[in-house]
Amino acid sequence: MRRFLILIFVFNGYLVDAQDTDPTTIPKIQEYAEQMLAAIKQIGHKISESKTDHFLYLSKNWQHTTVITTTDEYLHFDGRYNILRNALEANLGEELYRINAWQIKAARIGDRLLVPLSAKLIEEGNIMKFFEVLSSGKLTLLQQFSVGSRVEGGNSPIATMTGETVYYISTDFYYTKDFTSLKKLKRNKNRILELFGEESDDLDAYMDENGLKFRKDEDVIQVFEQFNNGH
Q1: For residues 116, 121, 122 and 126, what is the CA-based torsion angle, rounded to 10 degrees?
Q2: Would you call 196 helix, strand, or coil by DSSP?
Q3: Residue 31: strand, helix, or coil
Q4: What is the pLDDT of residues 11-44, one digit of tens each?
Q5: H-type helices in the chain, by residue range?
Q6: Which of 102, 147, 143 has its CA nearest to residue 126?
Q7: Within a 10 A sphere around the Cβ of 178, how many other Cβ atoms?
């Protein structure tokens, strides 16, 4: 049953009445489902649920996910982004599989788009890290997620030994013109407006008209969207 549910998403949710179904359709769907599952298992590795990871996902719920692999295959499954592990996870019913960033070109999880980029672009080593695309066009705005931890109960040596470790998610915004380099976005109005060149005055007026402040993430995204896609 699980394999058939996966294919419901693959075929964009269109269901047909059983009386109108070609007798060869079901075997074809089953064959395609088997191929899809095999492809996911080939690039992923089997995992078990981790209590440590419980709150460290982009979304707590499994969502419809489409992945383009580095070999240009399109895979569809119920997925989620594990921020702590920097990997996608696929729910195949009775089994969970984890797919690492270096095996993927892009992934859409629900309505959110993730792209893996080299951490060298932000001077954090050679691994691939996922970034969320918040706005794209003349100047792409990206969001990177990271996980931090703290010990509940204070900073004393005793509290450090006996307290509970609490994990939290933090984010940083980056921008790029051509993906050859990434620059961290500093929340300074004048510096950000300088990025927009000749359109900076228009965007400054747009911010005033709409009461936007760069302190709020959603306002930053809205200004970039206006720059990239506004008319």
Answers
A1: 70
A2: coil
A3: helix
A4: 444 344 445 556 677 777 777 778 888 899 999 9
A5: 2-10, 25-43, 157-162, 189-194, 200-210, 217-229
A6: 102
A7: 6
Q: State pTM to two decimals.
A: 0.80
Q: Which pLDDT tens digit goes with each residue over 67-116?
A: 999 999 999 999 999 998 999 999 998 899 999 999 999 999 999 999 99
Question: CA 149, 151, 154, 155 torsion: positive or negative?
Answer: negative
Contact residues for 206 (Cβ-Cβ < 8 A; gap 6+): 212, 223, 226, 230
CA pair distance 92, 40, nearest whole angstrom? 9
Q: Name the token pair of 174.
A: 């980056």
Cα–Cα distance measured from residue 100 to residue 104, given in angstroms and rounded to the nearest whole number: 7
Rounded Cα gap, residues 58 and 199, in angstroms: 33
pLDDT exceeds cutoff 70 at 5 = no
Q: What is the 3-state secondary structure (H, E, C) of 84-96?
A: CCCEEEEECCCCE
Of 115, 129, 126, which is closest to residue 84 (Cα–Cα)? Answer: 129
In whole angstroms, what is the distance from residue 184 CA to residue 174 CA?
4
- Per-residue pLDDT at 151 exceeds 50: yes
For residues 134 and 112, what is the distance between their CA atoms, to the nearest angstrom?
8
